[in-house]
């Protein structure tokens, strides 16, 4: 039970911690100054939403997201949000591929080399179906999370940063809503595809509340670290590199590799959501669908990593607020339906 719960927990975290999050760009876009309460609210909202999605998926034994989505948004809006989820997964996977190109540029490699490497790796991964993603998450994510927390706490200590010194300044608390909404939509797609593999509600609780707690702690420490270098962030495509600039080169190499894997796990989760949906219509091998999707994505990466995040993420964050409201109030609506 614990092992299975951790497996799903890493799938949730792997879906959420992608190029935008791990690089610091997404956190800075939504949070920044006076956001401590916003991050605590995000942790709570995220855990509840994940639990509702995963519980629905488990009850329906679903293999793709549509049955789960229908229960969340209702029959009338299902078609609209089906298209929205597909477009969201598509565009954010483009952001991940662009993030791989940006990571390569940090080491003076060609932007296109970074893109070619991630595309080949994704095709190879899907030759093993969903088991390849789960196995990779269980190996890579503990290293990524441990490394990220180590560097952030080291930076916090070096800057003599008091993590709880600004709790009287919380004007940005509303940012919790669009930030949670942004991160929930891909989880409907990914968790909706694994309902037939979940075997107990205990697994769901471990996965959802464990991932919420871990993401909340990392978000809080990371955001406080970024506040200290606010003036320098504009100079960096990837804000994490601004934090790392004073540290040994070996640490920069290690975190760059881990950042790339964070990008890769989220790209893989996005592709998983897309291909499980497309398989309903196209009865062709999974790997072939993956190749076709990736070929159509490559030209869109020319817009650049930070540009894509700046425009796409806030738009989806607002559009997804309805889904967030439905998820947070789902237990209330569900109990009202049963009472009728």
Write the layout of secondary structure elements.
Layout: H1 2-16, H2 19-22, H3 25-30, H4 36-60, H5 66-73, H6 75-105, H7 111-125, H8 129-158, H9 176-191, H10 201-228, H11 240-244, H12 249-278, H13 286-297, H14 305-319, H15 321-339
Helix pairs in contact: 1-8, 1-9, 1-10, 1-12, 4-5, 4-9, 4-10, 4-15, 5-6, 6-7, 6-12, 6-14, 7-13, 8-10, 8-12, 9-14, 9-15, 12-13
Protein name: Membrane protein YkvI
Organism: Virgibacillus indicus
Keywords: Membrane, Transmembrane, Transmembrane helix
What's the rounded overall pLDDT mean?
Answer: 83
Radius of gyration: 19 Å
**Gross morphology:** globular
Helix content: over 70%
Output the CATH homologous superfamily.
Amino acid/polyamine transporter I
Helix and strand succession? HHHHHHHHHHHHHHH
| Uncertain stretches | none
| Overall tally of structural domains | 1
- Overall structural class, as computed from helix and strand content, comes to mainly alpha
Residue share in β-strands: under 5%
**What is the name of the CATH topology?**
Amino acid/polyamine transporter I
| Count of helical stretches | 15
| Gap from first CA to last CA | 35 Å
Transmembrane segments: 38-58, 79-98, 110-127, 139-156, 176-195, 204-222, 251-274, 286-305, 311-333
Keywords: Membrane, Transmembrane, Transmembrane helix
Protein name: Membrane protein YkvI
InterPro entries: YkvI-like
General description of the model:
By secondary structure, this protein is mostly helical. It has one domain: Up-down Bundle (Amino acid/polyamine transporter I). 76% of the residues lie in helices and 0% in strands. The chain is built from 15 helices and no strands. Helix 1 crosses helix 8. The chain is globular and about 55 Å long. The model has no long low-confidence stretch (mean pLDDT 83).
